[in-house]
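Inputs:
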Amino acid sequence: MLYSPNPPPLGRILHLYNSTSRKRSWGSSGQRFHLNTMEFSRERRLKARLAGDRRGDLYPHSLQFYLQPPTENISLAEFENFAIDRLKLLKLVENLGVSYVKGSEEYKSKLGHELRKLKFPYRVLAEDDYDARRKDHISHFILRLAYCQSEDLRRWFIQQEIDLFRYRFNELTDVLVQKFLKYVNLSYEAISEEVKEKLSVQLLNSTPGLSGAKVEELVFYKVPLPDAMDLFRVRRVYLLNGIAYVPHTDIIAIVLNNYRIKLSKALALTARSLPAVQSDERLQPLLNHLSHSYIGPDYSIQKNTGKISLELIDALSVKSFPLCMRQLHKALRDNHHLRHGGRIQYGLFLKGIGLTLEQALQFWKSEFIKGKVDADKFDKGYAYSIRHSYGKEGKRTDYTPFSCMKIILSNPPSQGDYHGCPFRHSDPELLKQKLQSYKIPPTGITQILELVKGMHYQLACQKYFQLTHDVDDIGFSLNHPNQYFAESQKLLSGGREVKKETSEPESSQQKLSNQKSTNSSSILTSSNTDADIELEGLDAYFTED
Amino acid sequence: VAKNYFQRREFSFTLRDDIYVRYQSFNSPQELEKEMQKMNPYKIDVGAVYSHRPSQRNTVHMGAFQAQEKELVFDIDMTDYDDVRRCCSSAEICSKCWTLMTIAIRIIDRALVEDFGVKHRLWVYSGRRGVHCWVCDDSIRKWSSALRSAAVEYLTLVKGGSESVKKVNLADSIHPFIRRSLLRFTDALADVKQVSADLLGCRGQVSSPPAVLMGVNGSPVRESLLREFPKKRDSVQRWELLKTKMDKHRASSKKACHTEWEIMLQYCFPRLDINVSRGVGHLLKSPFSVHPKTGRVSVPIDLQCLDQFDPFAVPTISGLCSELDAANEEDGEKENEAEPGAKRRTRDYKKTSLAPYVRVFEQFVEEMDKWRKGWSGGGSEL
Ligand code: SF4
Ligand SMILES: [Zn+2]
C-alpha cells in the first residue's frame, strides 16, 4: 500500500463533489458526478448488485471512451485501492513500452497477465465482467483527478492510457470492433472495388508495410481529414481531395486519435474544476501522492531562486547542464541569438535552476545586444516573452520547465534551431564528435550510441551523466533537465545524501521505472495539443518576414 | 458567416518604435479604417476570431476567452534556406534564390489543392524575403492547432536542426505526396540547375564536396562520390554523376535507396515555419501592408504567372506616392473637389501599379463569395 490515510473524518464515505454547494463537471460530457453527503448504504449497494439488467446497460462493451463519469458513491478505501491499482497498471504499461516492442507477444502476454491480476477487464468476450468494467471505469476517472494538474502529468497519463487502450482494442474480434465503432460513432464509408483498383498504386505507396495482395483484400474507408490526423501527420495514409483513404488495419489510429482528443479535452476541463477537489482534505494528499509517485516534481517551484549568479552560468553549463542545455547555451553565446524554440526551452530551464526574472532579463539582453538586436528592440519584444514565461504577462501562466519527455516528443528542431534533445535530434555522427570533444572515453561513447540507437534517449543521457560525474550508479531515473542539474549540483557539492533525500515514499516506485525512457518511434505518439496552446502566447510577436 | 464574425476578429497594430497593440477589434470595417487613419500603424497583423470580442476580453471569465477560428496560414521564409544558399544570407534575397521560393509555392499549392482538397487560398509576398499563404476554406478555418501542425508535418520533408546534416530521409516506398512533388520538381529542375550553380557545392569550394554528402553515411556510393566529386566542375555534372552512380547501385542491390533525391530535396524542398501555422491565435501580417524595412507592398501573387513574379518589381510606398501625385496632377483640373473621399480613394489606387494586385485579391474574394453562395443556395451534393 502506498498511502495509508488517517481514518477519514466523515466515516467511510467518499464525497468527491458536493452536489448542493459545488457543482463540478468531471468530464467533457457536462455530466455531474455528485457526491452527496449521504451515508453509504449497504442496501443501495445490494440493490445495485441485483439490478442485473441495468448493470449490463452501464457497460455494454469491455472498452469505452470514458465519456460518462461514474455516479455512484464509493468508499474511501475502494477509491484508494482502485486508484493504486490503475496506477500500477499504467506504470506497467509504461515499463513494458520501454522494454518490449509494443504489440509483440511478450508485451501482450505480460499486459494481459497484469490486467487479470489486478482484476481489470482482460477477456474482451467475458459477459459477466461487471466488476472489472466498473473498476476500469471508476479508476480511470480517479486518476484523471490526479493527473490533470499539470501539462506533464496530463501528457504522461494520456500516453499510458492510449497505450493501454491500444492493447485492449487490438484484442477485440472483428465483430466486436465493428460494434464498438458503431457505439462510439466512428463508422465510415468503405470504398468500392473499382475505386480501390484505380487507386491501388497510391494506396500501396502510402501505407508502409502493405503488400499489393494485402491492398486487394483489405477494406479501405473514406475518412475526413480531422479524424485521420495521426495518420496523415506521419504521411502514412493516402490523401486525395481532403479525404484520407484508411485501410481497415489502421482504423485503430482513428480510434486512438479520437480518444486522445476527447481525453485531453476532458482533462483540461477537470483541471479547471480542480480547486473544488483540492479543498477536500481527504482527497488532496492522496491525489498529490498519486501524481507525485509518477514523474516527480515539475521544477516549477524554485528553491534556489536568486542563488545563481550570472557569472557562474558558463562554468555551470559545462559541469552541470545536461547536453541539451549545454548545446543551447553554447549556441546562444556563439550566435548572440536563439530562435524561439530555444529561447523557451532554455529560458524555462534557467528559470528552473533559479534565475530571477530580473536576472533572466539581464542575461538574455546582454547576449542579444551583442548580436543584431538593439536594446530598444529587446525591451519592446523579447522582454515581453521573458516576462510572459515568468507569468507576468498575457495569460499569466507560470510556465514550468520542460521535461525530457516533452523535449523529446514535441516541437522537434528545424533549420537554425538548437533546441530539442541531442540524443534524439542530433545526427549520431555529430553526437559522437561532440562527445569526443567533451572527452568521453570511446567505450562510453559506444555505449551511449547503442542506447540512442535503441531509442533510449534518457538512458543515454543518464549514461552521459554517469561518465561525466564519474559515478557508477547515478541513483535516480532521469526525466527532467532540471533534475539532471539538481543531481549534478548535489553530487559536485559533495552533499548528496543518499536516497533519504529524494523525498516521500516514491523511491520504490521510482526504482521500478528505472528503465524509463521514451519510445518515440511509435508512429502514433501524442500530438501534444495542450503544449502547443500553451506555447502560443510566448511567440506571437516574433514572426519576422 | 456567423454574426459578429468580424467583431470577434483580432487585429494588432504595430506603431512607431515597435509598440505593439494587440487584441483590438472593431464593430465594422469602417471603424477599422478610421482607427487605422488615426493610429497610423506601421504594420497591421490579422489574428484569430475569438469566442468574444478581443477588445472586451478582460470582461469575460479567465479561460473563457478562446481563439476559435483562423485561416490556416503558412510562412515560407528565405532565411530558413541559409544552409543551402550561397548567393545570399538572412534577409537578403536575389532572383537566384527566389527560384527556391517559386518551387516551394508550386509544391505546397499542389498539395493543398490535390491532397487536402483546399478550395480557397491566397499567396502573398511578404515584402521582403518570404511568402505567406492564407487558406480560407470554412472547414479548415476551424482546425485545432494539432491539426494545423499535422498539416505542416505532412508537408515537411526537411527535418532536423543545426545539429543534423542530412535532413531528408525517404522511406523505401515513396508516398504519393513526395512523388507528385518530385514531378513538380523535374519541371523546375532545369531552372534550379541553371540558376543555382552552387547547388551541389561548386561555387567557391570546388575541391570540397557538399556538406550534405557527409551526412550520407549509410549510402554505399559515398566513398566513390567523395573521390570523384571534386573533379566535376559544375552542379549539373555533379548531379549527373550522382545520378549515374545511384542508378548503377540500385541495379545491383535489392534495397531501395534514394540518395540523389534526398540530396536534391534537401536543397529545394519547401521549408515551412511550423510555429506560424500551428497556433490558432498566431498573428500574421495583413496583405497590402508596407514592409517597414523595404518599403515594398506585401502583394498577392497570381499563381497563373508565378514564374513572372518578381519580388523586386512590386510597388513600393514611395513609388505609389509619386504615381498618385503624377496621376492627380494630370487630371488635376478635371478633379471635382466635391467628390466624396471614399469614392475618390477607390478610384485612385486604380491609377497606380498596385491595381493589378488588387485585382488578384478581388478575384480571390469573388471566388470565395461565389462558392459560398453556391453552398448555401445550392443543393446538398456539395
Ligand atoms: S535526456 Fe533530457 S536532459 Fe538529457 S539531453 Fe535529452 S532532454 Fe536534455
Ligand atoms: Zn540569393
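Chain B touches chain A through 70 residues (CB under 8 Å). Flag for discussion at group meeting.
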